[in-house]
Amino acid sequence: MIAVGDGLWLLSTPTSGYVVRLAGDATPTCAHWGPALTLDQARDLPAGWPELPVEGGAWFGVAGLQIRYGDAVRGVEWRHLGHAVEGDQLVLHMADGHYPLEITLHYRVRGETIERWTTVTNCGAEPVTLLRCDSAAWSLPHRDGYRLSHVSGDWGREFQLRRTDLTMAETVLTSRRGHSGHHANPWLMVDDGHATEEHGEVWSVALAWSGSWRITVERDQHDRVGLSGGFGHEGLTWRLGAGESVDTPVFAGVYSPAGFGGASHRWHDYARTFLLDDRTRPVVFNSWEATEFDISQEQQMALAERAAALGVELFVMDDAWFGGRTSDRVGLGDWWPNPDRFPEGLAPLIEHVRKLGMTFGLWVEPESVNPDSELYRTHPEWVLRQPNRRSTEVRNQLLLDFSRNEVAAWAHRWLDDLVRRHDISFLKWDMNRPFTEAGDEVWVPFVRNVYAIIDQLRADHPQLTIEGCASGGGRADLGMLARTDQTWTSDNTDAAQRIAIQHGYSQLYPVRTMGAWVTDSPNAITGRLTPLRFRFHVAMSGALGIGGDLLRWTPQELEEATALVEQYKRIRSVVHGGRLDRLGRWAVQYTLEDEVAVFLWRPTTLVGRDAPVRLRGLDPDGVYRDEDTGVLHHGAVLMSHGLPRPLPFDALSDLRRLIRC
Ligand code: GLA
Question: Which residues are annotated as active site (predicted)?
Answer without folding.
Answer: 430, 491
